[in-house]
Records
---
Amino acid sequence: MKGVQNIYHYSYTLSILLVFLVLILFYPALSIYVNTMSSSESLTISSNRTLVSSDGVFELGFFKPSGLSRWYLGIWYKKVSEKTYAWVANRDNPLSNSIGTLKISGNNLVLLGQSNNTVWSTNRTRGNARSSVIAELLPNGNFVMRYSNNKDSSGFLWQSFDFPTDTLLPEMKLGYNLKTGRNRFLTSWRSYDDPSTGIFAYKLDIRRGLPEFILINQFLNQRVEMQRSGPWNGMEFSGIPEVQGLNYMVYNYTENSEEIAYSFHMTNQSIYSRLTVSDYTVDRFTWIPPSSAWNLFWSLPTDVCDPLYLCGSYSYCDLNTSPNCNCIRGFVPKNRQQWDLREGSEGCVRTTQLSCTGDGFLRLNNMKLPDTKTATVDRRIDVKKCEERCLSDCNCTSFATADVRNGGLGCVFWTGDLVEMRKQAVGGQDLYVRLNAADLDFSSGEKRDRTGKIISWSIGVSIMLILSVIVFCFWRRRQKQAKADAAPIGNQVLMNEVVLPRKRRFFSGEDEVENLELPLMEFETVVTATEHFSDFNKVGKGGFGVVYKGRLVDGQEIAVKRLSEMSTQGTDEFMNEVRLIAKLQHNNLVRLLGCCIYEGEKILIYEYLENLSLDSHLFG
Ligand SMILES: *[C@@H]1O[C@H](CO)[C@@H](O)[C@H](O)[C@H]1NC(C)=O
Ligand SMILES: *[C@@H]1O[C@H](CO)[C@@H](O)[C@H](O)[C@H]1NC(C)=O
Ligand SMILES: *[C@@H]1O[C@H](CO)[C@@H](O)[C@H](O)[C@H]1NC(C)=O
Ligand SMILES: *[C@@H]1O[C@H](CO)[C@@H](O)[C@H](O)[C@H]1NC(C)=O
Ligand SMILES: *[C@@H]1O[C@H](CO)[C@@H](O)[C@H](O)[C@H]1NC(C)=O
Ligand SMILES: *[C@@H]1O[C@H](CO)[C@@H](O)[C@H](O)[C@H]1NC(C)=O
């Protein structure tokens, strides 16, 4: 009898063990972590109970910063040994002692203090609880209140992701929910161990022409902007060149009728990343298992170029130059003394005022776009239309594409002074700055692509032409020389109508000019016009030599081509060739105005073409 009882007992124990085994095998999360709280349950400080997300990443419960007797309800990373809080519920209203209860009351989550006073509440307007309401800590760290039978995120009654504290988690959105009018932003802790609202905020500002994130210091009700992200350009914020092509994080910026928001997600869920605003900085940290500490991925402000308004209007900051502030080409420092003493905040002013009708654009690449306070955006038009639109508005100072993907789409244009720009080593985007045509010279690397290409192409063609003529003539002369050598008398006169003395210091252009259709120019004149061939006037360089821009005393602008001394050609041959080129002149070619020979220097002087006039030549 006893044996039978024993067998019953054993099989009973065995089956219970089996049931447990099955539960553990098939519902590991359920058996290990509690991630929900029903309306009949509560969390109290004294019970030490917490909620843990099903994947064990986040934990929700009460905590007490070291040294203080104040209790807060919050969410932290469970696996990271360095205690890191992602969210705090009652940051500005702590529990004053270790008596506190979190529970569901009607359709609200409430945090009650010692005398059942409400310390914190989700403040939802009361509705009928038709179905039972539960609270759940989701795997992404979102603490939500929902009907127990509706897991869909659109049906959440309340979620902590809508009320960020100082940390942006993956899948959490920062920015405007246009349906509720709520702007979700980050606010720093007051200090390292005080979660109450601090004075630094990272906030999307949509009052600008294009939304930008701004790091704000709100000390004593004074709002001081510290750093701006630059507008989103389809791939990144132009002022935060996050490492592109990095496959671990995917950034998402959405702008539609429902929201203007930024978020990111991780492609490998074992790696954590968070964006946190603290004193004076916004930081992105990553945690790679099994590390015990967070790794700083990037931080703002990063360098000397980051503080706002370091370089004044029409100047940009560049880490690779000294001083860091640079006037845009076509602009000069407003206050030369301050500028020279490396105080760039007064910025730069135009060399030549805009003329409204005769203006063009200078392209600057890798730029963080200027402050968008005076910017307007039109997402429907392309770059070409954008340029036309900017040109047609005399107040327009600059334009750029709104979305750099697929060759550029959308148009941003500025009507005010351009402020707060920087040149990035990588990232950033093209910015087209309006200049008077007089300040735009050809061949500058920063100039607009199309014009640049046309000009280098036409220079290339004319040089080819000149060289082939020279080579041809040289060959002809060689042949004649050979003949002349055979017949030894009167060779010089036979070959040249003009015999040029070899040892002259320079050609005044007075004696022989009648015979030539081309004026000879004094070397001094050329030197003066190009300011001693200064680098500043240099507009191009090639195998043939260097091209300078110059201005004659009478104001005429010239392009001076200083043939390299590699050329072994003799003086009279050169003159012959020049005459030939002069005869070849055509309306659509850049006109050769003259030449100059001086002690081995051979110089060609062309009419200087503004890019606009060349454009109009080529495109009517
Ligand atoms: C809660 O934790 C504290 C400290 O770890 C401990 O002193 C206390 O006994 C715990 N309470 C319960 C109910 O487990
Ligand atoms: C708070 O509420 C609980 C449950 O409703 C009750 O048992 C307790 O006596 C209340 N405490 C005080 C101080 O009112
Ligand atoms: C809820 O409303 C009360 C009173 O209007 C307010 O003091 C409190 O800050 C609100 N709590 C939250 C979490 O918004
Ligand atoms: C970005 O977020 C929006 C909603 O906020 C979503 O519809 C879209 O699919 C997301 N895009 C990517 C690439 O994740
Ligand atoms: C994700 O990261 C973890 C930790 O570094 C690594 O062990 C794992 O192989 C990664 N998974 C994938 C799919 O790359
Ligand atoms: C240009 O700016 C001036 C002064 O700010 C303003 O009066 C004028 O209306 C503007 N013109 C256009 C076309 O916006």
---
Amino acid sequence: MKGPKVLAAALIAVTLDNVQALQRKRDTSRADIQYQAHYFQQKINHFPENKLPYAKDNFTQRYYFDSTYYKPGGPVYLYISGETSATNGLGVILENRYYGASYPFNTSTTDQLAFLTTAQTIADNSYFAQNAVFPGIEGDLTAPGTPWILYGGSLAGAQTAFSIKKYGDVLYGGIAASAPIHVVVGYPEWYNPIQKYAPQECVNRINNIVDKFDALVAKKQTAAIKQFKALFGLEVLTDNRDFASAIADPIGNPGFYLSNTWQELNWNSTYGSRDFFYFCGNVSNIDAPKEISDVDYALSKYTNGEPWVGLGGYADYIKKHTLPLCSSGDYNSHDCWGTQNKSAWADISNTATRSYVYTSCTEQWAFPKGKYNKVPASPDLNVYNSFGDFNFSANRLAFVDGDQDVWNGLCYHSPLAPARRQTSDLHPELFITGSGHHWDSYGILNVDAEPQFIREAHLWEIRTVKQWLQRAILLYSITEYLPEY
Ligand SMILES: *[C@@H]1O[C@H](CO)[C@@H](O)[C@H](O)[C@H]1NC(C)=O
Ligand SMILES: *[C@@H]1O[C@H](CO)[C@@H](O)[C@H](O)[C@H]1NC(C)=O
Ligand SMILES: *[C@@H]1O[C@H](CO)[C@@H](O)[C@H](O)[C@H]1NC(C)=O
Ligand SMILES: *[C@@H]1O[C@H](CO)[C@@H](O)[C@H](O)[C@H]1NC(C)=O
Ligand SMILES: *[C@@H]1O[C@H](CO)[C@@H](O)[C@H](O)[C@H]1NC(C)=O
Ligand SMILES: *[C@@H]1O[C@H](CO)[C@@H](O)[C@H](O)[C@H]1NC(C)=O
């Protein structure tokens, strides 16, 4: 008899954001303190046809679990709130390979990174679900005998979607939050929600200043460019691209930045930062002291006497609040805004940044051709998009997105996606008005006390998963009575 006597749901929550967010999460992560780390013998390689060295070896993959709410038997209710608390369910967090304490190798050369692929990563989820042990918990909780429900936000949301699509026979269902299921080379649309939803006087001022500076660059007005950089205390950034990314730091970009930006806002300030609004407050400050507002006229001779409205507040904010984020004080270094140091890119130390860059970029300085592995001249988008792209569909896979999310252009609810798709019990979807990047990942234990838009999204997620599980109970109890074939 294969049907489970003990029905439980397990939750994998792998939230893998861009590197800054990762860094912050590591800094603020309470997991080490609250929960004991466990280590799983994971296969370095899941595909027998792969004959690379080490392909037959294991590595240790870290995981945590929370059995506070776990009860053997009875119906299963799964609470999804970013904390891994699920009524009667068991919450598990499995660390992504090549991050944290889950590196297969001591360094990250191009060859050693060969096993950091989407295919291997999602196979980890399936293999783990089929073999996981939970010390102290009685009974066999492995999949598919026990329904496993995945939850992931951001890149982990995409991994959730891919896992359910590829391993739907093992993994019962999943919620993919703000999952970029479509990839592109270059993503200027990242700024669209900021242009649309951020305070408009701030947006207009910044747009006008950027246009004016671009005109100086187009006309090669070297002296004016130098003077502009000096207003921000950034003369040292001779590469205009690096300079642009430094003064854009409080707004961010799809790659690397040091500030808390629009992406780091959150409905609950415990999990996010208001810095973006403070930045805008400075750019739009109508009460700025004269020595700051005078700076608006510093370059007006290049614009027919027209002031660069907000420049004083902008430059002052950068000097006081952005430059100090560069801890070495060397603004042109690799750790801050300098991107032109080849040997810094080539550093093979294991870091989250390097793993993320390997997954996302085309940077040849970082990954010279190895003996067995090389990065393509341009990323092979098809490997990723072929899971379904904007037409992505898998049974018991829910897509949850937010309209204010900078990554929404790549998600299920992207403005580029086909307009009319039908939601159903097996293919549920929710587009949360007012929500940023997987804001549903954050919750408080009392869902009723949450703000309406998040509360209702959480209640929807609970209903969705409950409904799937009710069907599972039905399915498994029927099998109990079926004769063995
Ligand atoms: C890898 O770990 C599995 C248990 O997950 C074990 O059965 C297997 O022998 C290990 N293989 C190697 C090469 O260590
Ligand atoms: C990796 O580092 C550990 C601890 O420093 C060491 O014991 C081990 O031999 C190293 N492995 C390799 C393959 O270099
Ligand atoms: C300017 O930014 C600082 C630092 O975040 C903040 O404390 C201050 O309130 C902001 N000023 C305005 C006028 O918003
Ligand atoms: C470039 O990076 C390397 C390795 O991190 C470092 O040792 C070197 O000082 C850097 N060079 C410059 C000019 O910053
Ligand atoms: C999605 O499906 C529609 C209708 O079948 C098709 O026209 C479109 O090209 C597909 N889009 C993608 C990105 O696959
Ligand atoms: C924000 O989260 C904290 C920690 O979970 C909680 O104590 C607080 O009540 C929450 N605030 C709101 C407005 O939900």
